[in-house]
Amino acid sequence: MEALILSLKDNLLARLRSSDLVLAQVTNVGRNEYSTLELGRMYRVKYLFRQRYFMEGVKRLDFVRGGSTFGDVPNFEGEIGFLFLSNLNERVYQCHWQGHIPIERYDGELWCVLYNVRLWLDMDVPQVILDNYKPSHHRLDKDGNSLDSLVRFEVLEAYLMELIAELDQKPCEPFEVVDMQDWRVFKKLS
């Protein structure tokens, strides 16, 4: 039986159809399923809350993190990245499968870590992504091939905004909640 492998676009669209996208820093990973994040940039607030909620000064949220099921990588304290969040019964939930895309600095540049995404196998990846990606060598399969991909932050951010605009049929207009310049990966290197 052949495994169903979604393209990068289909994978991201599946998450965006039921979740909002934020750039955040995980400030606390609790022993139970709850964690805390500091909001940086909001790309979409269709399912989570309304924009005015954040304009009233909310900068931190408690959320139920996605499970660390087989093949999925859990959040870690201090992680900075894109999170896919939704609101159900007044609780904020992270998308249960690959509900986060961490951002790391490699060789002085910002890269998004796409866990369990092998872009070189995806026939539907936009050329701009292929031109701005490299395999991550942190996690390898039994044959020594990379399990994960790295995509330049600004390129993946622009692609996510395009997908949001496509879904919502209007331009994606992100807004800042806190200044992110002091966050670890965004600090200027001396």
Please outline the major beta sheet: 10 strands, antiparallel
How many structural domains?
1
Supply Rg: 16 Å
How much of the residues is beta strand, in percent? 35-45%
Number of strand segments: 10
Low-pLDDT segments: none
Number of helices: 4
| H/E element order | HEEHEEEEEHEEHE
In one word, what is the shape? globular
Topology:
Blueprint: H1 8-16, E1 20-29, E2 34-42, H2 51-55, E3 60-64, E4 80-88, E5 91-94, E6 100-106, E7 109-114, H3 127-130, E8 133-140, E9 146-152, H4 153-168, E10 175-176
Antiparallel strand pairs: 1-2, 1-4, 2-3, 2-10, 4-5, 4-6, 6-7, 7-9, 8-9
Helix pairs in contact: 1-4
Question: Could you characterize what this model shows?
Answer:
- About 30% of the residues are buried.
- The protein is globular and about 45 Å long.
- Helix 1 crosses helix 4.
- Helix content is about 20%, strand content about 35%.
- Strands 1, 2, 3, 4, 5, 6, 7, 8, 9 and 10 form a 10-stranded antiparallel sheet that branches.
- By secondary structure, it is α+β, with helices and mostly antiparallel strands.
- It has one domain.
- The mean pLDDT is about 80.
- A hairpin with a 2-residue loop joins strand 6 and strand 7.
